[in-house]
Design goal:
This protein is α/β, with parallel strands linked by helices. The protein folds into three domains: 217 residues, HUPs (Rossmann fold), CATH 3.40.50.620; 92 residues, Tyrosyl-Transfer RNA Synthetase, CATH 1.10.240; 74 residues, RNA-binding S4 domain (Structural Genomics Hypothetical 15.5 Kd Protein In mrcA-pckA Intergenic Region, Chain A). The chain is built from 19 helices and 15 strands. The strands form four sheets. A six-stranded mixed β-sheet has the order 1-6-5-2-3-4, sandwiched between helices. A five-stranded mixed β-sheet has the order 9-15-14-11-12, covered by helices on one side. Strands 7-8 form a two-stranded antiparallel ribbon. The radius of gyration is 26 Å and the shape is elongated.
């Protein structure tokens, strides 16, 4: 399959300007394309994966991707997909976040290829030098207010109000496309479906200013079959930064994918061949209880984002928690696995009964005694029935961690300090 056929197979084309023209251009020579990423936080999240992986797919097909970090537009704020105005961040914060996003993006694209190297750009390099007169005379004159009001990103905000600052965002993004088309022959912009208005504004500016032919492609909004928002958990967004969402938590997000979504996500977020995806689709129908497709999805995406070692560690933690053999975990794995369970810090020597109360594994000493006597309590993987059992740091894994299991699924963590 060529790149457009592959994107079609994977359901990754939502809107596309002049498919025939783009197909012809791609067949004749490598195309330069870009996707933009504004530094609105100190990390990208899984909502950014589709455009990132789209750039990667184009590079694997022999084309030249550009990851554009919005050091300039990040100071303004994109109204797309929002019902209220963004809070403006200081320039120092935007510079800091821009640098962090650059490091994250460099994990996905090959910037050292001798054939079709990826590029990293920062639109502050040209937006930062614009003065208001140049902006209004040379760029703003190409856009009528009626044209801008008709765009969904603006129209959806009119009832709640939109500042001139965010109203102007579309023109700045259009100018990004114009500059990269003029400076480095970039002729394709890709993005999420909410970027269609901004992308077509760029095509408008390029056409009026240079007459060059350029193209736009958007990917679908990722949705879940149960109606809940993709990329959100009880703890908030699923981040690509391992310090914000650990590899184990990241792995768990994907392995909990519903049967109705898993094949779609395999197409969206992995580079598995169609034959392998078809095989996994058959497994979902024939043996859904085995959850093979979910395990493959979780492994592939975790490895892609965090590396092979992190993926293997996440798999190990999952298996250990299922079996209860927690004594094989490292300190880092314990921290990852039990980040969200009830926990407590303790010192000196503490009776197991008191420890169960401290970590809230039991509501009372009476219940704690009953749980111990009935064999419902395990400490670091070993069942304990001794009511007089006491613990010190020396009993902990790596000299400090006590993992308590009550019943089959309830875990608690105590840490000696």
């Amino acid at each position: 399959m060529d790149i457009l056929q592959e994107l079609n197979y994977r359901g990754l084309i939502h809107q596309l300007t002049d498919e025939e023209g783009l197909a012809k251009k791609i067949s004749e020579e490598p195309i330069v394309l870009y996707a933009g990423f504004d530094p609105t936080a100190d990390s990208l999240h899984i909502g950014h994966l589709l455009p990132i992986l789209c750039l990667k797919r184009f590079q694997m097909a022999g084309h030249l991707p550009i990851a554009l970090v919005g050091g300039g537009t990040g100071l303004i704020g994109d109204p797309s997909g929002r019902s209220t105005e963004r809070s403006l961040n200081t320039q120092d914060i935007v510079v800091e976040w821009t640098d962090k996003l650059k490091k994250q993006l460099s994990r996905f694209l090959d910037f050292d290829s001798s054939v079709n190297p990826a590029r990293m750009e920062n639109n502050y390099n040209w937006l930062g030098d614009l003065n208001v007169i140049t902006f209004l005379r040379d760029i703003g004159k190409n856009f009528s207010v009626n044209y801008m009001l008709a765009k969904d990103s603006v129209d959806s905000r009119l009832s709640n109000g939109i500042s001139f600052t965010e109203f102007s965002y579309m023109i700045l993004q259009a100018y990004d496309f114009f500059r990269m088309n003029s400076d480095i022959n970039c002729s394709l912009q890709v993005g999420g479906s909410d970027q269609w208005g901004n992308i077509t504004a760029g095509l408008e500016l390029i056409g009026k200013s240079t007459g060059n032919k350029a193209f736009g492609l958007t990917m679908p909004l990722v949705t879940k079959s149960d109606g809940t928002k993709f990329g959100k958990t009880a703890g908030g967004a699923v981040w690509l930064d391992a310090d914000k969402t650990s590899p184990y938590q990241f792995y768990q997000f994907w392995i909990n994918t519903h049967d109705n979504d898993v094949v779609k996500f395999l197409k969206y977020f992995t580079f598995l061949a169609p034959e392998e995806i078809a095989r996994l689709e058959e497994q979902v129908s024939a043996s859904p209880e085995k959850r093979e497709a979910q395990r493959v999805l979780a492994k592939e995406v975790t490895e892609l984002v965090h590396g092979a070692d992190a993926a293997l560690s996440a798999i190990k933690i999952s298996e250990v928690l299922f079996s209860g053999n927690v004594d094989t975990l490292s300190g880092r794995e314990i921290e990852d696995a039990f980040q969200d369970v009830p926990s407590a810090e303790v010192t000196g020597e503490i009776a197991l009964i008191d420890l169960l109360l401290a970590v809230k594994a039991a509501p009372s000493k009476r219940q704690a005694k009953q749980d111990i006597e009935s064999g419902a309590v395990s400490v670091n993987g070993a069942k304990v029935t001794d009511l007089n059992k006491a613990l010190t740091a020396g009993d902990g894994m790596e000299g400090k961690y006590i993992v308590i299991r009550r019943g089959k699924r309830n875990y608690y963590l105590a840490k000696f300090v």
